[in-house]
Amino acid sequence: MRSFSITALALLFYSGVGICAENVDAPATANPDLIIVRRFATPRWIVVLDPSLGFSLDRRQPGVLRARRAASLARATAFILADTITEQLRDGGYDAVQLDQAGSEPGGRALIVSGVFRRINEGHRRHLAAKDASVEASVEIESRTHAEKPHRVMIFRLDSRQIPHESWSYREPEVNSAARRLGVKIAHTVADVAHRHNWPERRPDGDRAD
């Protein structure tokens, strides 16, 4: 009986935590003027792996399957790109969220950023000075008002090799740096589109400027 009571209390506790977390996140997606960032599609065949890392450090164990490595690299790159775009837009004063589910809040409007990777090149990680890792992507910006069908605002293609390195970009693996440089560039383009469409920004005090 005592064991049953403890289990019941534990379930209630974790249920309460989940409810609290859901309530905390709700205001972000309830804003009527959102910029929604979706993770970019990552076809596996566009991933180019570092050929020198196809073995295990322990010679007695088989290397990681290339397909698994490619899938892992694609997921990580998609996460870094979406996270960078979202954080850059938030730093610029916009209400940006990552949502992979289609649709914006009823009664609101949204700019939707999505895309597909064209190439993810891991480069040669063993060469510390090598700068051959790169990320290419096609980007689409759509606008949706209320429950209407979204319409395309802009579509463009970017290659990280055409974006200059910043000082911080040398502090992490090159493919991650390439994804972040691409994310910063995309965020700047989205912010420009938002500004031209009179998208409201937050003031320093947290209020929104109309």
Structure description:
The strands form two sheets. Strands 1, 2, 3, 4, 5 and 6 form a six-stranded mixed sheet that branches. A two-stranded antiparallel ribbon has the order 7-8. Residues 1-30 and 55-61 have low confidence and may be disordered. The longest helix has 29 residues, at 2-30. Helices cover 37% and strands 23% of the residues. It folds into two domains: 1-28; 31-209, Double Stranded RNA Binding Domain. It has 210 residues and is of the alpha/beta class. It is elongated and about 50 Å long.
List the helices and strands and how they pair.
Layout lengths: L1 H29 L2 E5 L9 E2 L17 H26 L4 E3 L10 E13 L12 E12 L5 E9 L14 H23 L4 E2 L5 E2 L1
Helix pairs in contact: 2-3
Task: Provide a brief overview of the structure.
The chain is an alpha/beta fold. It has helices spanning 2-30, 66-91, 174-196, and strands at residues 33-37, 47-48, 96-98, 109-121, 134-145, 151-159, 201-202, 208-209.
Sketch the major β-sheet.
Answer: 6 strands, mixed
**Weakly predicted, low-confidence segments:** 1-30, 55-61
Average of the residue pLDDT scores: 75
Tally of separate helices? 3
**Count of β-strands:** 8
What is the string of helix and strand elements?
Answer: HEEHEEEEHEE
- Structurally, how many domains make up the residues? 2
Give Rg in angstroms. 21 Å
Please write the CATH class name of the largest domain: Alpha Beta
Query: In percent, how helical is the residue content?
Result: 25-40%
- CATH fold label of the largest domain: Double Stranded RNA Binding Domain
How big a fraction of the residues is strand? 15-25%
Structural class computed from helices and strand pairing: alpha/beta
Instruction: Specify the overall morphology.
Output: elongated
The CATH level-2 architecture of the largest domain is identified as: 2-Layer Sandwich
